[in-house]
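Hi Y.,

Following your request, here is the sequence exactly as I used it, all 71 residues.
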Amino acid sequence: EEPREWSEAAELSDRMISVTPAELEDLERRIGDLLQPYMNRVGAPGPQPDGARTVVYVQLGFPIPDEPPPA
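Below is the corresponding structure, written out as tokens. Let me know if you'd prefer a different format.
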């Protein structure tokens, strides 16, 4: 079992968004840019911030099949 601070920080969620292919590419790029400084720490020599741990961050973005309107 994880300490309380890690249990509260961990998140599992999903969100439905409406985007064009170009907007999805932009969103993925922007999220990658936000994550890059933290990704650079993994395996880097030298000290890490106090309390830092390696975390798996899963990112999925894919279209869902269009459904016909209910009859």
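The CA atoms of residues 39 and 54 lie 9 Å apart.

Thanks again,
Q.
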